[in-house]
Amino acid sequence: MPVTNQPHAEHVPEFSEPGSTAVSWARVERVLRDSEMFWLSTVRGDGRPHVAPLPAMWLDGRLHFCTGAHEQKARNLESNPRCVLTTGSNSFREGLDVIVEGTAAQVGDEAVLTRLARMWRDKLDWPFEVADGRFRDPGSDDHRAPVFGVTPAKVLAFSKNPYSQTRYTFGE
Q1: Which among 114, 75, 4, 120 is positioned nearest to 67, based on CA atoms?
Q2: Neighbour tally for 105: CB within 10 Å
Q3: What stretches of the chain show up as alpha helix (H) in DSSP?
Q4: What's the pLDDT at 60?
Q5: What is the predicted pLDDT for the residue at 21?
Q6: CA separation for the pair 23, 142 (Å, rounded)
Q7: What is the pTM of this model?
Q8: What span, in angstroms and rounded, lies between the C-alpha atoms of 149 and 103?
Q9: Is the distance from CB of 136 to CB of 158 less than 8 angstroms?
């Protein structure tokens, strides 16, 4: 089910250059849609952080990624579904960095998984098949990866020219 509520944007002047303005949600969505790699931050059961790079896809107002069920990030999400995904530019003076804070939930809807598999193939040339509510590498019956969708609670956008911070929150 798509997330349909639009975020409330707030320009954060104390972390922005004078005269700067809020980054448009359309620009933020473009970065989320066009970026290939993200950094996923989760929390281990003992409270230690865990960060890993992975591809993600923006679809229906959620950011989606997959991981092996045995991997640390999947085990972390089992006990604490709150996480952060970041993407953007590693340049100091240009680009737009975007941080998505939210809650991850496993995606089981076959139609959504099929759309996501098509996105992985078209965007990254990474073919996945959908099997038993998970992604499967073609030709491998034993490698099935759960797919997670992160529903944003807060999104931060950091523009670098001029320096500007915009906070997006999502209400009902």
Answers
A1: 75
A2: 13
A3: 25-34, 72-79, 110-124
A4: 96
A5: 94
A6: 44
A7: 0.93
A8: 8
A9: no
Sorted by sequence, the CB contacts under 8 Å of residue 141 that are 6+ apart come out as: none
pLDDT confidence of residue 171: 76
Query: CA-to-CA distance for 127 and 155, rounded, in angstroms?
Result: 29
Question: In this predicted model, what pLDDT tens digit does every residue of 91-131 receive, in sequence order?
Answer: 998 999 999 999 999 999 999 999 999 999 999 999 999 99
Give residue 145's identity as a one-letter amino acid code: A
> Sign of the C-alpha dihedral, residues 112, 3, 81, 55?
positive
Spans of all domains in the chain: 22-169
**Which band of pLDDT confidence, cut at 50, 70 and 90, is reported for residue 146?**
very high
How many Å apart are CA 104 and CA 38, to the nearest integer? 15
- Rounded CA gap, 160 and 158, in Å? 6
Q: What is the pLDDT of residues 5-47, one digit of tens each?
A: 689 999 999 999 999 999 999 999 999 999 999 999 999 999 9
What contacts 16, CB < 8 A, 6 or more positions away? Answer: 162, 163, 164, 165
CATH class of 22-169: mainly beta
